[in-house]
Amino acid sequence: DESPGEFRVRDLSLAESGRRQIRLAEHEMPGLMALRRELAPSQPLAGARIAGSIHMTVQTAVLIETLTALGAEVRWASCNIFSTQDEAAAAVVVGPEGTPEQPRGAPVFAWKGETLEEYWECADQVFTWPGAGPNMILDDGGDATLLVHQGVEAERAGTVGPGTSPGEPGHSAEGEVLRETLRRSLAADPQRWTGIARGIRGVTEETTTGVRRLDQLAEAGSLLFPAIDVNSSVTKSKFDNRYGIRHSLLDGLNRATDVLIGGKVALVAGYGDVGKGAAEALRGQGARVVVSEIDPICALQAVMDGHQVARVEDVVGEADFFITTTGDRDVITADHMAAMKDKAVVGNIGHFDDEIDMAGLAAWPGVTRVEVKPQVHEWTFPDGHSVLVLSEGRLLNLGNATGHPSFVMSTSFTNQVIAQVDLFTRADAYDVGVHRLPKALDERVARLHLDALGVRLTELTKVQAEYLGLDVAGPYKPDHYRY
Ligand code: NAI
């Protein structure tokens, strides 16, 4: 390793603690470590320059060091202002061989508690390479991809427009900060993003919300390069989104408020993969869970799983916890919060902060806000009742805790690394559109995680395989199977 050059993290002296946590995480991330052993000798990512934007946690540190072990260079930012673990960021910059005085790792631009301005500056930094620009993006939620697309749009128009392209951050204040970043960039170099976009072979996207934005770009015909939807790998969305949340939602709630969950009423908005994990976790603690849904299939699933299904309005004065998992906007409104029980806890685990109407809350006549501790705020209404809002409406499992545990992130990130390698080494095989990894690779990711949990998998006999019309080695399900 060489010097990381420029970087921006909280405090490099945290690196030693970060390194110890990374070592523990490596033990819990068998898929990533298997890819290191298997692929490092052939260096499939040699020449890859990856602009990375994903929560800068301990688990992401293991991802970054897997990508660099395979030959990649990276520049990294977090995809959320509150989700960085400062010790992990420091450890990545210092690197396994470096010291805080002589860092030898990878450049990271991330710290816990960025302002929105700093957030978009960091996003800009991961595209600011010395010499040749980046040729790959690894994204979570689509902000890095959005920056390139809106940059190119602005350069084509010669001006930064109102931000009408699909995937605009729902949060209007955030859109304005992004536009200001683009205005400065346009003034400094009117061809910058066009040049960057030309060099990008593709993006691999981590989460449901980012994939929705990619699909919108593709539908509008404005997607600029191929994309792999990592979220739709079964070993991503059916594990991270569900079992990851089942763990990290409680972690966030407990660290934030330490309010007893048992015996209480918890409203979970959305019963997709994340909502199912959230409802299971809350019920596991003894809460009575009420689900709200717009999709009749998911509503039917929720009721069959034994949850009451109602509208937010129906239980607004009754619930003790309100957890949004929809990836939608305006799910909890200021009117809802005004009608809640005293000290109700309001938190979001969907990707963006527009699920809870924070702007409407702040504008409520006579409302006051007190910081109980960082990322926990008590908002008191003129009638005297208050609500506790976690992480200012941003994803609470990463803002109030440290996100998902390593093992489940290993399944997600093994898909990420496989997607990066495939897109980088076989770029010609991907047209400009949104692609998924083949099921054989999905099954392989699962296989890499069985031994660590003591699983003895049954093997098909040749006769059984013929009877079922399968290959002994898989894939075992058709693509449309839903698990
Ligand atoms: P999903 O699409 O499986 O589930 C979302 C559900 O919300 C859908 O069933 C939809 O019908 C429902 N919904 C939409 N609008 C609604 C409304 N107004 N009221 C009630 N229900 C509504 O998506 P998934 O995978 O569960 O992800 C949800 C969000 O969580 C996304 O933003 C995703 O990016 C994010 N995510 C966050 C993670 C974290 O660690 N915090 C991890 C994984 C995903």
From TrEMBL:
Binding sites annotated in the UniProt record for NAD(+): 207-209, 241, 270-275, 293, 349-351, 397
Keyword NAD: yes
Keywords: Cytoplasm, Hydrolase, NAD, One-carbon metabolism
Cofactor: NAD(+)
Cofactor: binding details: Binds 1 NAD(+) per subunit.
Function field: May play a key role in the regulation of the intracellular concentration of adenosylhomocysteine.
Record NCBIfam families: ahcY (TIGR00936), PRK05476.2-3 (NF004005)
Name assigned to this protein: Adenosylhomocysteinase
Gene that specifies this protein: ahcY
